[in-house]
Amino acid sequence: MPTNPLTHFNPQGQAQMVDVGEKTETPRQAMATGSILMKPETLARIVEGSTRKGDVLGVARIAAIQGAKRTADLIPLCHPIALTKVSVDFAIDKETNRVHCTARAECFGRTGVEMEALCAASIGLLTIYDMCKAVDRGMRIEEVRLLEKSGGKSGHWTAN
C-alpha cells in the first residue's frame, strides 16, 4: 500500500495525474446510480411524454452516454478512456415521485471506469432537471453513488 493512499497527490502534496503506464490492461466495469425527486405532476408529464421539450428520458439517456464519454474533459485528473460500452437505464417510481438512473460503463484498460459511470448517472439526472425545470425548479438530485466496480488490481467491489 502506498504511503499516501490519495494517489492524486505527489509526496509534496501537489495534484498529479496517476501514472497507469505500468498497470496491466484488464476488463473493467462500474455501475453507478442516483435519483431525482420531483412533484407528482412533473413525473406524470415525463411518463405521458407531455413536456414541451419532448422525450425527457430518451434525451437524458443520450446525454448520460455523452457524459461518460466526456468524463476526462470534466474531471481534471481523469485519464481519457476508450470505453467499450455505456448503458443507461431509467426506472419510474410513482410511489416516491422519483426517476432512478442506473449507468454502467465498461472498458478494457489500465484504469477503472467508476468516474465514467458516476458522470453518466449525474449527467442523465441533470438533463432530466434541465428539461423539466420550467415546471418544477424544486426537483432534487439525490444519492448519486457507485454501486459496483470490477477489474484491475483492487478487484471486485460492491456497495453495502
TrEMBL record:
EC top class, as a word: lyase
A GO MF term: cyclic pyranopterin monophosphate synthase activity
CDD domains from the UniProt entry: MoaC_PE
Pathway(s) the chain acts in: Cofactor biosynthesis; molybdopterin biosynthesis
UniProt-annotated catalytic positions: 130
UniProt GO BP: Mo-molybdopterin cofactor biosynthetic process
The protein, known as: Cyclic pyranopterin monophosphate synthase
Biological source species: Candidatus Accumulibacter vicinus
Lineage summary: Bacteria, Pseudomonadati, Pseudomonadota, Betaproteobacteria, Candidatus Accumulibacter
Primary gene name: moaC
